[in-house]
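[audit] Reproducing an earlier prediction to check determinism. Same input, same settings, fresh worker. If the tokens differ from the archived copy the diff job will pick it up downstream; this log only records the rerun itself.
[audit] input (218 residues):
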Amino acid sequence: MKRYIVTTFLLIIFTQIQAQIYEIDSVKIDRFKIEAGLFIPIGNLSNKMDVSKEVGVYYRLKVAHKDIVDVGFKGYFPEGSKEFTYYGRDSIYATRSKSFGLIALTKINKHYNFSLFKKEIIAEWTSGIGFNFLFFEDKESPENTSGTRINEDGNSETIIDTNSKALMSPFLSQGVGFTRKRIGLSFQYDFMPYNWFTKRIESSFGNSAFSLFVSYKI
């Protein structure tokens, strides 16, 4: 039932985007936006990784009602990855995320202009929709299991060079930001329901994070 609710929600947002893009505003805008900041896992997801770096690159479209649509990608780089349980076809594995996650993302930004100490500021209310890939070590189908090594406990263990798999899920976000000229500061809530779309991880895996980042428009 949960996956049908999310799918319906995604279709509604996509329809709203398509309905707005028909009217292109003639006012020139900065066409690219670069973001850099922190990906802050919360709840159970904080048990899988620590606070990590993230970067994003977007192409910007101005549409009806002076809204801005950003289309692009956001990458995050999990630090302090911790083990989680993965249920394979024949066995149960303890694995961990690799050093990269990727989100294909479209963001709808509503702009509100105001003045603060005689400086023009743009407030942005941002809704995002996309798809998230969290890559992890594939111990079910390792690339290489030849050789041994001594682990931290002084015991001999098999060397396992792993391939990568990805946990996949829809990605939804909601945030607010403030921009002065081309430089902005934003805070955003991210929702990634990994466990709704696979039975190979525990239901308590975690699905939420905050993003805090600065942006620059080109």
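[audit] rerun output stored. Observation attached for the diff report: Residues 17-25 have pLDDT under 50 and may be disordered.
[audit] end
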